[in-house]
Amino acid sequence: MTKESPRHTVVVGCLVRNEEGKVLLIRHHQRGWEIPQGRVEEGENLVDAVHREVREETGVEIELGPLAAVWSMVSPPPAVIFAFQGRYLEGALTPTGDSVEVAWFTEAEATQMVASSVMRQRLQVLLEFDGTVCYRSYTIRPYQLHLERGLAQWSSPAAES
Question: For the domain 9-160, what is the CATH code?
Fold first, then answer.
C-alpha cells in the first residue's frame, strides 16, 4: 500500500499600489474585501499567475515587484500562498465574477475594509514590507499563527553546526 502524497493548493496575491500610494482591493462575493489573489493553474509559473489574477479580478495591468511574504496554511485544505508587491500600470477598475467590487483605498481605509482576521493580517504584513520576506505558518477555524519568521532569520543547518 502506498501513501498518497500531500496536496497543497498554490495561491498568489499582490498588494498593488497606484501613483498616490493607494492600495487596490477587491470585494470577493464570499470573503469580503481583500487583495487580488487566486490559485496558480497547473503548469503556470508564479509571475504569470499574479499578472493573470490581478487582471482577471481587477481589470488592470501591473508592474510586479518583489516577493514580500509566504504563508503556509497547514489546516485542511492545505495551501501555500506567495504574496508580492506591485505597482499599477494601466487599465480601468473592472469587477468580474470573482470580484463584485474593485476600489482604491488609503492604507488606513484598506485596513478597516478587510474584515477577515486572516486577510487583515496578510494585508498588514504586506503594508509593513521592509524588503525582508515574511514567512508565516497558520491554521484556520480558529485562526492560529504557529510560526513567523523573516526569511533573513533562517540559517542553514550547516551554519548551526
Answer: 3.90.79.10
Residues 6+ apart with CB under 8 A from 39: 9, 10, 11, 49
| DSSP tag of 43 | T
pLDDT single digits (tens) 38-85: 999 999 999 999 999 999 999 999 999 999 999 998 888 899 999 999
Q: Which three cell numbers stand for residue 10?
A: 498554490
Q: What whole-number distance in Å separates Cα of residue 60 and Cα of residue 88?
A: 7
Q: Note the pTM of the prediction, 2 decimals.
A: 0.86
107 CB burial (10 A radius; 0-12, 13-18, 19+): middle
Q: Which parts of the chain fold into alpha helices (H)?
A: 46-58, 107-113, 117-127, 157-160
User: Count of CB atoms within 10 A of residue 129's CB?
Assistant: 18
